[in-house]
Amino acid sequence: MGFRGHRRAGGSISVFFRRLTSSSSEKPSPEQEISMILLQSHSRFLLQALSNRVHNVEKGVEVDYQWVEFDDVRYHVQVVSMKNPHIVLLSVCLPTPPPETAFPGGLPLGAIEAIKATYGVVVQILDPPRDGFNLTLKINLSKLPPDEEFKQSLLVKIASIREVVLGAPLRAVLKRLCSRTMTPDVNQLIALVHRPNEAFFVIPQVEKVIVVYPMRFSDMIDTVLATSFLQEFVEARRTAGLNNAPSCTWSSSPPLELKKAPPEALSANAGFVSFVIFPRHVEGRKLDRTVWSLSTFHAYVSYHVKCSEGFMHTRMRRRVESMIQALDRAKPEGDKAKRSPNSRSFKRLSLKDARTNSNT
């Protein structure tokens, strides 16, 4: 069964491309939200924890939460002192970077500058971070804006710390593309971490940026499903109405853009996916959506692979149940007691029973 039979995957592919071309004011319809899953840039649990703390800061409730999200990103939210209930510590552990990526000081290039530009005086970076984490932020809730709408908007930005940090290098490249700025890294291969010990590659050019993903899956079934999904993904790009979306290609062998990549980075059992990003895809507020969609593309594919696998398992279970019911209905009924015309029941005796009765 291919992905064409899975309506949720098909709807998600179309919305994925439209997300890269629509303006920021356009949102998916409720039907589109049901038919697809595009990962949100903010951590829902982190946003809930921060919002609860803001509304209950005077109650003096202790806060100490730890959790892990997709691609092995780990969070720790803690209020260390009840004397300063407005101070919240947020620690983030990022995926282990492969050797080909630049990760100075345990953070991607430009992450510190991106944090300062995004959060201002509300957030302070602690150096060194807490043990076992790449980054620790000191959040002062008393410095949040009084306006409720602005306050909620800033909390969503704080909950999007993953996008701000991991997306910092890609954002810098796409900003230069939007401004058409000539930089020394033109035509240079840039490796960016997105999963534990795995990277995707960015090749900046003057008029475009090429993004290449080596797609790896540890499970053989996932590999087969992912390959089918990616081929369908490329076909969906040719759909009418998606002419302005980034061009997308899939190949089983590394594209020429990766000829300078280390050999260990080219082991992809589900092939290679390439996007070509033009300035129109990152103009204005489209930049944030494009950065997040590209940074989490592998997670997006993995999600739909698992959904389709579960969908097929459900279909198989239903099929087995229907076959079992058919077999149950085909079973011959056991001998029933027969009744005489006088409404008296009698039992048909076998030859063995008859001999036994005659002997007695």
Sheet-strand content, in percent, reads 15-25%
> Could you describe the largest sheet, including whether it forms a barrel?
5 strands, antiparallel
Uncertain regions: pLDDT < 50 for 5+ in a row? 4-8, 25-36
Number of E-type strands: 12
Strand order of the biggest β-sheet: 1-2-3-5-4
**What is the total domain count?**
2
Radius of gyration: 29 Å
Quick check: average pLDDT? 84
Along the chain, the helix and strand elements come as HHHEEEHEEHHHEEEHEEHHEEH
CATH class of the largest domain: Alpha Beta
InterPro entries: ARPC2, ARPC2/4
Family: Belongs to the ARPC2 family.
Subcellular location: Cell projection; Cytoplasm, Cytoskeleton
Protein name: Arp2/3 complex 34 kDa subunit
Q: Concise description?
A:
By secondary structure, the protein is α+β, with helices and mostly antiparallel strands. About 40% of the residues lie in helices and about 15% in strands. The protein folds into two domains: about 190 residues, Yope Regulator, Chain: A (2-Layer Sandwich); about 120 residues, Yope Regulator, Chain: A.
Which descriptors would you attach to this protein?
360 residues; alpha+beta; Yope Regulator, Chain: A; 2 domains; 5-stranded antiparallel β-sheet; 11 helices; 17% strand; globular; actin-binding
What's the topology here?
Blueprint: H1 7-19, H2 30-35, H3 44-55, E1 64-69, E2 73-78, E3 87-93, H4 111-119, E4 123-125, E5 135-140, H5 148-159, H6 161-166, H7 168-179, E6 190-195, E7 198-204, E8 209-214, H8 220-237, E9 247-251, E10 272-277, H9 286-295, H10 297-330, E11 338-339, E12 345-346, H11 351-359
